[in-house]
C-alpha cells in the first residue's frame, strides 16, 4: 500500500483496462515427432508433409516461411480465427519436423 512515489502515491486506486482477445481453450502445440498434442488434422498434415518433402529440411523451412508470410498478411484482414490458428499450427509442425530431421542428421555425422 506504499505505492511507487512520486508517480503512484500510497493508497492509490489503480484501474487497469484490458482487452480480451479470445476466450476458450487453446490446444497444446502439436509435437510431430511424438504425436503429443496433435489432432487428427495435424497427423494428416504431418504425413502429407513427410511424403511431400521427404525429410528435406530446406524445403520444409521454405514452406514454413511461405505460410508465415500468408499468415502475416491475414493480420490486416478480418480473417477467420480458425484459419489463422491452423496456419500457426502448420508453421509449428513444419519447424519441429525440420528441427527433428536436423538433429537426426547431426547424430549420424558424429
Could you explain how this protein is built, in words?
Helix 2 (57-74) packs antiparallel against helix 3. This protein is 55% helix and 0% strand. It is an all-alpha fold and 110 residues long. The radius of gyration is 21 Å and the shape is elongated. The protein contains 3 helices and no strands.
Supply the number of helical segments.
3
- What structural class do helix, strand and pairing data support? mainly alpha
Assembly form of the protein: single chain
SSE series: HHH
> What kind of sheet is the major sheet?
none
What is the typical, i.e. mean, pLDDT? 82
Share of residues in strands? under 5%
Which keywords apply here?
mainly alpha; 3 helices; elongated; 110 residues
Task: Provide a short characterization of the protein structure.
The protein has 110 residues and is mainly α. The chain has helices at residues 40-53, 57-74, 81-109.
Chart the SSEs and their pairings.
Blueprint: H1 40-53, H2 57-74, H3 81-109
Helix pairs in contact: 1-3, 2-3
Amino acid at each position: 500500500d506504499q505505492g511507487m512515489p512520486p508517480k503512484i502515491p500510497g493508497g492509490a486506486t489503480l484501474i487497469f483496462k484490458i482487452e480480451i482477445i479470445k476466450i476458450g481453450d487453446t490446444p497444446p502445440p502439436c509435437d510431430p515427432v511424438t504425436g503429443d498434442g496433435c489432432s487428427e488434422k495435424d497427423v494428416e498434415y504431418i504425413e502429407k508433409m513427410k511424403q511431400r518433402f521427404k525429410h528435406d529440411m530446406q524445403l520444409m523451412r521454405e514452406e514454413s516461411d511461405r505460410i508465415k508470410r500468408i499468415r502475416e498478411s491475414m493480420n490486416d484482414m478480418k480473417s477467420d480465427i480458425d484459419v489463422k490458428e491452423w496456419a500457426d499450427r502448420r508453421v509449428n509442425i513444419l519447424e519441429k519436423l525440420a528441427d527433428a530431421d536436423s538433429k537426426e542428421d547431426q547424430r549420424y555425422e558424429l
